[in-house]
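User: Hi! I'm working on a homework problem where we have to compare a predicted structure to a textbook description. Could you give me the structure for the chain below?
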Amino acid sequence: MIRFSLICEHEHEFEAWFRSNDDFDTQKKRGFVDCPSCGSHKIEKALMAPAVSTSRRQEKVALAMGEAQKQALAQLK
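Assistant: Happy to help. Predicted structure tokens:
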């Protein structure tokens, strides 16, 4: 499955899943792809940021808490 970022002629952006790029093209030609906001069938693929995975694990960073946050947390415990 492939997730595409799509945009209609009215600049509504949305995402949709397809089995393949050819599947998207076929559905678009047949008028099966429409904008969920306005119903337009004039849909194009939008620019999409690639999903990038890193080989390193991200380090967790502890956030500093103010005195008010510490007291509120202590009351919850």
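For your comparison, note the following. The mean pLDDT is 84. The first strand starts at residue 2 and ends at 8. Good luck with the assignment!
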